Amino acid sequence: MEAFGPIDPAKIAGQDFYTTAGDPVEPEFPGPAELMDRLAALSPAGLDTVFLSNSGAEAVENAMKICYDHTGGSCGITFEGAFHGRTLGTLSVNRSKAVYRRGFPEISGVHDAPFCRDGGCTAGTCDCGFFAGDTSVLRRMLHPDRGHVAPEEVAFVILEPIQGEGGYHVPSNAFLREVADLCARHDVPVIADEIQSGTGRTGDFWASDGLPIEPDVICAAKGARLGATIASADVFPDETSRLSSTWGAGGLIDALQGAVTIDVIRERDLMENAAVRGEQFRAEIENAALPNLVDARGRGLMQAVEFDTERRRDDVQEAALQRGLLTLGCGHKTLRLLPPLDVREREINMGVDLLAEAAEAAA
Ligand SMILES: Cc1ncc(COP(=O)(O)O)c(C=O)c1O
Fold first, then answer.
1. How far is ligand 1, taken at its centre, from the CA of residue 63, in Å?
2. What does R_g of the chain's alpha carbons equal in angstroms?
3. Please, what are the averages of pLDDT over each run of 10 residues along the chain (363 residues)?
4. Measured from the CB, is residue 83 less than 6 Å from ligand 1?
5. Is the pTM above the cut of 0.85?
6. How far apart are CA 115 and CA 131, in angstroms?
7. Are residues 215 and 351 in the same domain?
8. How far apart are CA 355 and CA 198, in angstroms?
9. Secondary structure letter of residue 43 according to DSSP
10. For the domain that residue 289 is a member of, what is the CATH number?
11. Which domain holds residue 133?
12. Half-sphere exposure of residue 103, counting CA atoms within 13 Å on the CB side?
């Protein structure tokens, strides 16, 4: 099969869409294999293997599956406020709004811990419920003698490096270090769900690149244009058919879009742009002194503004839309602001002016 490069003839015989654009060795345009190469090259050392799928939820499903398979564990740990998708498996690790889970059966054995909502937390000052006394909820949960979860049964800890749907919460380094330390101590794989925070959005390719946590598995979608589960080869199952899909190499056009998106991000320094424009946005929000603003937070071009009530947030969103500014709710009182990665200085300027007008109108 070597002679066929990235193409496996058996896959084609099964009508699986493991295709490439023309010559498998020198394709006319980048396809699935080239997208996988790009994703692996931009991931932390050792995360060299990629499985493509149709959506973010499938990327998370497959991340959980490979962790169950690799560790032999039967349970998982997620965090309050988490959102990981809408398939039956992924909704089981959701801990944001009830609407995602209500009435649906779930996979068993998912435990949850508080997520840090304050980037400035330390173990001593934490108000988020994660650190308590001289320890953390997670450390207590996994304590080999006194904990209620046996560490050797934990197949994964899944987290969003910056929580999206749950309210755009940027966790503290103290929180991330504690999670990383416990996972390393008990040999529990960390799944970083980078579906919202990844592909350059925060100014790093993965938000976790700039944070004190080293994922064993990364999930991507959105900017990658299809779902991608990225891990080291030894975390993926050896056994044939344990992990597969008709679309397990991604659609040709989706993969082309994903590969070209990544090329443009790199060639045009769009990660740098995300970092600079994000700082501009925060500075301008501060100057604008929006009425009823409770908090502004985020990293790069993953920014959010929180208002005093849900009603106010909804009114600001409506007033912003009437003025031509598109925003999206998250958490309960927060609006997310996700400008394109190539946004310019003047556009951030205009966006903040429109948001300020909308906040005035809703005051
Ligand atoms: C952090 C996170 N994980 C998973 C998903 C699910 O992705 P998809 O909608 O592509 O299934 C989303 C979607 O918004 C997300 O934000």
1. 13
2. 21
3. 54 64 82 93 97 96 98 98 97 95 95 94 92 93 96 98 97 97 98 98 96 97 96 95 83 92 98 98 96 97 98 98 97 97 98 98 97
4. yes
5. yes
6. 10
7. no
8. 25
9. S
10. 3.90.1150.10
11. 2-267
12. 1
